[in-house]
Amino acid sequence: MWLYVVNLVMAAGVFIFGLVSWQRTDAHAYLYIGIGFLCFAISHAFKLANAIVGGDGIAWLASGQPFDWVLIVVRIIGYLLCLYAVISAK
């Protein structure tokens, strides 16, 4: 469970610093990286909520149940945003 907490805090931190850096420099790469890490934070938040609530709560979303693809799509979007930020940075 602590792994999810650490990952959530770190991903949220990168999101916040990405937004602050984007506002200061107006470089969109920081914004895309920040939003990408927001996707990772959302994924970690669902995993953490499942660990706290346990079994019946939101297990349909955070465990290997039929809606596991939702977290996979959220993470893929996060990776694609970070990839686009790295490629488009000048």
Describe what you observe in this structure.
There is one protein chain. With 90 residues, the chain is mostly helical. The chain contains four helices and no strands. It has one domain. It has helices at residues 2-25, 28-53, 59-62, 68-88. The protein is flat, with a radius of gyration of 14 Å. The model has no long low-confidence stretch (mean pLDDT 87).
Q: Topology of this structure?
A:
Layout: H1 2-25, H2 28-53, H3 59-62, H4 68-88
Helix pairs in contact: 1-2, 2-4
Q: Give the beta-strand count.
A: 0
Question: Kindly, what is the distance between the CA atoms of the first and last residues, rounded to a whole number of angstroms?
Answer: 39 Å
* Order of helix and strand elements from N to C terminus: HHHH
Instruction: Round the mean pLDDT to the nearest integer and report it.
Output: 87
Apparent shape: flat
- Count of helices? 4
Q: In percent, how helical is the residue content?
A: over 70%
Structural class: mainly alpha
- The total tally of domains equals 1
Please tell me how large the radius of gyration is. 14 Å
How much of the sequence lies in strands comes to: under 5%
Which blocks of ≥5 consecutive residues have pLDDT under 50?
none
Please outline the major beta sheet: none
